[in-house]
Amino acid sequence: MTTTTYETAEHNVNFRPLKEFGLRLLYPFIGLSGLISVWWFGGHLIESNPDLVAFSDFAPLPTFYALLDLINSGDLWSTISSSLYRILIGLIWGIVIGVPTGILIGYIDIAMKTANVPFQFIRMISPLAWMPIAVLAFDSWDSAIIFLILMAAVWPIIFSTANGVRKIDPHWFKIARNLGASGYHMLTKIILPAIMMDVVAGIRLAVGVAWVVLVPAEYLGVTSGLGYAINDARDTLSYDTLAAIVIVIGIIGYCLDSICGFFVKKFNWHIE
Question: Distance between CA 144 and CA 218 in Å, rounded?
Fold first, then answer.
């Protein structure tokens, strides 16, 4: 009979948390190993095909060496910082616009009925479709890219925030009014604490969409950022560097999503 508890005369040692931690690491390791195996096999097929041998640098080993070169040269950090700056500013604008708008249309029923159709219509337009307008409207490429990120990020925040407001029990507002609460107190003591998890969940969705939009948006005239680095590697036929930048984009995107997921759990009162 197998047991996870080792008993001595003085104390008990419970190995179950250690086992659960090991399993939490094991499954991602298996998944990543499978992904790398498929990548390696694909690289092997490309390398063994004379018509595709020029693309053999997409294989894992050349990509790994190219990634090391990027890290050692220091170019990678300036590239990442440029992209993160644009994402950060775009998200800040998305939050500044999205949260108050979401509270408004979630709290006022007429506002929801009036804004729903036009908001849904605009939301379904690809953020990249605004690229010509952004280029004409803004005097710098950075501002145009930040605008595209804003157009990608604001809608998940608006609708998630509005959904959170509409889930609040109406009796809370009635009790607050009976106790003489002002609009400011209802906002700060009832609405914001109640919708915080929905706001953070909306921000998490916004980060994912904005990160996907960022790379093609950085093809616009800028000379820095991950999108520019991919474009430059493609033009110079540096496929190992291109693959390395793609890996970096995936790692950063995963880290950003994990950070947002942590805060979603932190603000969700129902998660143990």
Answer: 10
Q: Give the pTM.
A: 0.81
CATH of domain 63-267: 1.10.3720.10
Residues 147 and 137 sit within 8 Å (Cβ to Cβ)? yes
Q: Where are the alpha helices (DSSP H) in the chain?
A: 16-48, 60-73, 75-107, 109-123, 131-137, 141-166, 170-178, 183-186, 192-217, 226-235, 239-267
How far apart are the C-alpha atoms of 60 and 69, rounded to whole Å? 14
Q: How far apart are CA 174 and CA 176, in angstroms?
A: 5
Q: Which residues contact 184 (CB under 8 A, 6 or more apart)?
A: none
Distance CA 67, CA 70 (A): 5
For each of the chain's 272 residues, which pLDDT tens digit applies? 444 444 444 455 566 776 666 767 777 778 888 877 887 877 777 777 777 766 676 778 888 888 888 888 888 888 899 999 999 999 999 999 999 999 999 988 898 889 989 999 999 998 889 988 988 888 888 899 999 999 999 999 999 999 999 988 888 888 888 888 787 888 888 888 889 989 999 999 999 999 999 988 888 778 888 988 898 888 888 888 898 999 999 999 999 999 988 888 887 764 43
Residue of 197, 125, 134 whose CA lies nearest to 154: 125
Domain coordinates of the chain in residue numbers? 5-48, 63-267
